[in-house]
Specification:
4 copies of one chain form a homotetramer. By secondary structure, chain A is of the alpha/beta class. Chain A is built from 11 helices and 11 strands. Chain A folds into 2 domains: 181 residues, Rossmann fold (3-Layer(aba) Sandwich); 111 residues, Rossmann fold (3-Layer(aba) Sandwich). The mean pLDDT of chain A is 96. Chains in contact: A-B, A-C, B-D, C-D.
């Protein structure tokens, strides 16, 4: 193992930059040559890569996004695309890949390794925290804090104007972000894909609360559980109370990574390089319950079961 | 003038709380008794008010929203509503009102003063900065910084994924917020009600830029100039490039007021009380070009002409 | 167990308010009457307490500090003080105490329980994260992010003016905060009580780096490992290069709690009430490696051994 | 005028980067060639400069500090230094300089222009806002908001622990920052160089307040009016109440520029280039009461008289 390459693929997540920094600097420190590949798999296919050194990753530790850029590259899913990516790897004598991304990234890395026998190690970076077997992904702590801060702002208006708000947060199929920000912001209710939701019961509560003088109401909804705009409309219809929808959208993807997201990224960068040096492949490195874990690609890409009971029930009690 | 009352009406704006603090404490310092009226005109109509003292406004200077709460009260626009409001004023021997709000608030205050001869002074608080004759309203600096911060976040993804983003900001009929955040965030273009916009020319630029390698593109649109979702759709159709819409929405209304919004609020609170003490009425107090001004209600509620040329042209040059 | 009381003692930490919220609302939900005691043990000694309800803890989840206020109360360490505190407990038929605080708080609670047999459960809240047996205390994630944000700011000047900075962070006897912010901010070096530090070697590195053109340098020092002012002076003397000291100080204690600090606080509030309901006493509830733990007061107050090797070595590699 | 150069000198200020961006892009747009000079006058002396283009200033609008770096360069104050700087200017056929900085920068530019007849235009960038004739400098709005945010944090502890805090803010000889953050944060008192301060009267107020139950107290002190540590010590002695000092220090210099600082910087960059194109020299461009002004170097570097009465008296009334 003398030369490795690092790429970021799929949706960007805050903390990808410190992860790149760690792979490059730790790799160089271990005597490796480290390439930075631009735009994920696209960069391998189109031979857009560069030998990085210590200075290549200076001043990026606190920046959101990824200096390597990232794409969702459909060309990779063709034989020709994969062959061209492999030609780049061979041409530059790259012995191993560190792939920073989410489920789609690891699925692709799995294909690539199986076909060309190039060792691939994944680093779980995704605001949605939906990688099976991994407790916390790079970026999710940041996204949660960004969404929380936005909801704190909205609550100022909700309280001052005594309105009902439905706030939609990111998370794809997962209610992870929604659950966290709902409890942390003191929201009155949360709608997540993991749990059936009884909108009529909620409207009943709203009407009853309204009669007792409780007029502002905040509901967080995961994007995978329905659109905020639709839900707000239904609540207006059922309660005749003015209800506003806010879709937080892409502000949740960017911004400076939190301390947690940065430190996790730095540790996992080191772990990924160590895996390659130890002859491992087809693993995602991550943290689970405070411990380092290595999860097979095939396991990591399966649907993650989110244990929602604790927080979900606590929300109901605390509001 | 022995007793005055302060109310907040219309949409909330960050800085209303320091304005309340200033009216109450400066008023008390001048020997007045100061009532806080809850929920704007509704509170006068329904006799929801309270004698405030120095401590009533402790610990609120840095809080968004308004501790007095605010409503848009249709009942006030009936004779009965107005009479009931006046009964409250008479019953509590209130000699003057400080009305913190926007255009609708001053229109109502104008009616109230004309009918019952109760002196009314307005304080311009509105994130939209759309009060005629007033340079800067309380809250607009905060809203601009909140929107700017959100766009900084979005740019991380726009740059990393090389996407086109259309970001809709608040401002009602005014392009004020849009213009400010567009230039401050280094956006590629801005769409405001004050200027015709040629979407085809922009799409042409995007396509040309794309050929030269410039792939990320950020366009800010004022809510009064069209919906971000529609515009994004049109751009996708015209350019065949993936374009995302983000509607920043109510996050722009809340949050801790900036230093500028707080200090403006504190100064205007003092000025409003001084106006009442000096026997004035039917004026909005505000700042214009660094100087205190007093603008007649009838002037303040006219459509404000925004001078957009300087910033609009500079945006075109700097992108 | 029908009536419980909650108090905050020792240094304040961001997240104490959501912890109070959780104890009160979860307790009420379980059928308990919950008293809020003001100013920690002082409030028991001076009978300053109040029956709280659901509304008493509204609108505090996002606020730093503690609405119950907190003191370091020397009077409690006298027989008379303890007796008076017990009189208050007896008079109000309080069956159990939830004590939110740090080491000193649990030492006091241990004394109180041993002497009067009143069940006491502790919740670990301390920015220093120095409670033995507890992985993460309420407030430490917030303090780390606040310090990190401050250091991000300082780095702008360090880079622009090419200066050496020594930044002192809080943490008492522990290098926990220092280690976290040093790695997360990409600092060049860190000085913590847990490790000997060779200032001469560092100065040697600085001089060598300087010759290679690396002129800005950032060193984080834990307050327990020496003063930033002294260290900066020594570096100036050894290297003849201008070196600045910044002591971050009390900004690290305050501010809105992060999502992590809030959620941890809410969960631990529930856990503490459950402990009391289950007849437990003399335990600190906390999280360790993602799992709930209950640690005896006597264990919790012992000196916590911080495992610094992983992060400390990684800092050396990544800079 | 075909070629110009831009440099940043003196202390860095948030907004220098957007100012550079504006000078470069607006200059290029006007058909000029624009050099970026590194490390201020040092870069002219040592011929460290580079021809910039549109892309050279991409992605910097939201960054604190200055990509051109800055030094306080004593060598410039020698004949030899000045001659070498002039050689660089001549060698690269530079027809004019834009100097972004503060008083020292304009004094140097004045010398340079007088000696070699190279047109020099200054842009006022300084967190201290101490440029005579200029209402607001680039960076001061950002520094005020950073200090304010820090004081908001400290107040959480001041309130929770009921302590007295003395917080020292930057501002050199000027009480500008101190005055703004004191009023905006709701501080109890402020100590500035422009006004005599009676510490005994304040201690008297503290003791009296203490007797009435007001225990927390926050005093902002300008660095030019005495050290926070000393003042805190004196208060402790006079009142016997525990008093803490916090020196905010260099966190105030860095961080992302606010919308106001960015927009001001962008406008002034344009104005500076226009001045050079119009054959002007020895002027500082700036804003005063919402209007563009051009102030002679000789006037700009005189001691600025700060009109403190309005805010100073209002602070006394509102606390």
């Amino acid at each position: 193992m003398k030369r490795i390459a690092v790429l970021t693929t799929g949706g960007d997540a805050p903390g990808m930059n410190p992860a790149i920094r760690s792979v490059v600097r730790y790799g160089v420190n271990k005597g490796l040559e480290v390439f930075g590949v631009f735009r994920g798999w696209w960069g391998l296919i189109n031979e857009e890569l560069k030998l990085f050194n210590h200075r290549s990753v200076s001043g990026i530790i606190h920046e959101g996004g990824t200096i390597l850029k990232t794409t969702r590259c459909s060309e990779f899913y063709t034989d020709e695309g994969q062959d061209r990516a492999y030609q780049t790897v061979k041409k530059h004598s790259i012995d191993g890949l560190v792939v920073i991304g989410g489920n789609g990234s690891f699925r692709a890395a799995d294909i690539f390794h199986n076909k060309y026998n190039i060792p691939c190690i994944g680093i779980a970076a995704s605001i949605d925290n939906d990688i099976n077997g991994i407790g916390t992904t790079i970026g999710s702590d940041t996204a949660i804090n960004t969404a929380l801060c936005a909801i704190d702002n909205i609550r100022d208006t909700a309280t001052s104007m005594e309105r009902i708000f439905v706030v939609e947060v990111m998370g794809r199929e997962s209610g992870f972000i929604a659950l966290k920000v709902a409890i942390a912001s003191g929201c009155e209710d949360v709608i997540i894909p993991e749990r059936k939701f009884n909108l009529e019961a909620t409207c009943h509560n709203i009407i009853n609360g309204n009669l007792r003088g409780k007029i502002s109401w905040m509901i967080v909804v995961a994007e995978g559980a329905g659109g905020a705009v639709d839900i707000a409309k239904q609540i207006t219809e059922m309660t005749t109370l003015e209800t506003r929808a806010v879709v937080l959208g892409h502000i949740q993807r960017g911004g400076r990574p939190t301390a947690f997201s940065r430190i996790l990224a730095l540790i996992l960068g080191q772990a990924a390089v160590d895996c390659l040096l130890n002859g491992k492949t087809d693993k995602v490195v991550g943290m689970n319950a405070g411990k380092m874990v290595e999860v097979d690609f095939k396991v990591a890409i399966q649907k993650k079961q989110l244990d929602v009971d604790g927080l979900y029930n606590l929300i109901k009690v605390l509001t």
